[in-house]
């Protein structure tokens, strides 16, 4: 998707937003009234530390991942520090060092040297600031190469990997505040870094600010030598002496097992946290720890104000309350994910404005909510986020939500997604093209245009057809008159094969439920027959539905015999629809057997690796072709089948029944002929096909 520069004004490539607003005012000027008391307390705490004439400690700014700590430093705290002057009217300077991926103290030394000395020179500073990130390992070499042209003789030796220099003794940190970010992401030992920083504050009275996520620091330190620590924790407890300690399966999450695990983890923290080197060094180095909790509303407003596109800027400002409430509903407090979500939505907004310029703003708002919601869930590993990938459309999501409510079944995890971000006023809660964009970073224009054409058409008609409201939103949402009208109308559509195949499963269950509640005066047995007959008409009127499996996701398909029969019929009809769709293509494929087998195998691997290729109607012809193969080609075909079905692919399930028929054909041929080498090889091919079917069915059950 490129850089953030596409969407945000006045920004450098190492920062999402600039430090100035469109009017030229600093962030602190335009947002001073929006800074919370807690944030102002942090600012004053740091400023008092900087103003103090003598300090021998550092200050730590602690906060969760993605909470905006770095943003806070760059856009608020830094400018406030640089506004301070000493008794000689000299302004304070700040130096920012990212420790991300740093592998040695030497790297930090070099970066400090470059920042404090070389970056004094304007031209080199401009070049350096155009580089992303601030890591010496990536930036320093390019900076040094440029700087050499400005006649810095000492730099010639810096590029020599074997040359080391005591940079600490070359630098003067008077009137400078050093900010070290990403402590928890350094590749170097954290205790070594803290020991190194202690030299600055203890001996040179340098002002040092450390930005980190202390929880991640602690987790990282405690994860070292985890296996040995775990053994120690277990031996230090009395768990092994408990009579039932070993009776549970290790993966059993029953209360007993959970309590055992908790006791071990508590022991682990108790033993090793107390003797942690990090705490010892921190107590010596860190004089004050300030925990950053941002004013999210002010920060979101500032992000919006720096969007270039005036139309998008205006739309987001109009719906600022939606952004803030969705952000709060996510309970992630993650500004970084929010920024990425806004970038993704910027693309959605721009493409929609080009292709569907007259689209209703309500749809734009629905897409905004979904982009934010799905970003928070996917990028923070929210519960049920993986299930969202299996949903194909908004209609499917609504049908599943209605089904889980109507039939009181165990709710799929994505129901939590709905409850978290939506209420009954939202019409569109799922956009497949946005889910793909957020998850994979790909803007699928085909799905985008198809999906929004449907949505735009629905809004243009203003009213969803009554039978779809009945099937997707629940019969209880209808008025008395609507219910009386829609029930017989929808039932007749099912009988005539006019309702989409994907609705037949839940449609049957709804009418069955209404019959039991005496709200529909046809008995269940008759309903079943009418639905089965209607499915026969679907075969004549509809096309293959590729995502039928997702229709059954999380549903109880075995609640009774009638339901099972309807499900089997739905799958059978869809399989026949597929055969109608693919018949000519697969017929041409098997025309390559036996005369052009190499081309057959190439197409099998490249074009049909995830596509069923065996049709029941063609098994007689295919069996004759296999029987006519030469001995070497029989073995080659058997190996090709092994390779094809060695990995479980749900879509290949449609090959199973035809393969069983093919195996029977081969068995009959082998049984009716005298044993020869070719007959023996055909028998082996039959056994291979049987094993493929057995293995596939076993995996299908376990999945």
In short:
The chain contains 32 helices and five strands. It has 703 residues and is mainly alpha-helical.
Structure description:
Strand 3, helix 7 and strand 4 form a beta-alpha-beta unit. The chain has 32 helices and five strands. It is globular. The chain starts with 26 loop residues before the first helix and ends with a helix. The protein folds into four domains: 36-219, Rossmann fold (3-Layer(aba) Sandwich), CATH 3.40.50; 296-462, no CATH class; 471-576, no CATH class; 591-702. Strands 2-3-4-1-5 form a five-stranded parallel β-sheet, sandwiched between helices. With 703 residues, it is mostly helical. 59% of the residues lie in helices and 4% in strands.
Features:
32 helices; mainly alpha; 703 residues; 5-stranded parallel β-sheet
How are the SSEs ordered, and which strands pair?
Blueprint: H1 27-31, H2 37-51, E1 58-62, H3 69-82, E2 93-98, H4 105-116, H5 122-129, H6 136-148, E3 176-181, H7 190-203, E4 207-212, H8 214-222, H9 226-235, H10 255-274, H11 277-285, E5 286-291, H12 296-305, H13 310-318, H14 320-330, H15 335-355, H16 361-379, H17 385-388, H18 394-406, H19 414-421, H20 432-440, H21 445-460, H22 466-472, H23 480-495, H24 504-516, H25 524-541, H26 548-551, H27 561-590, H28 597-606, H29 619-627, H30 631-644, H31 656-671, H32 677-702
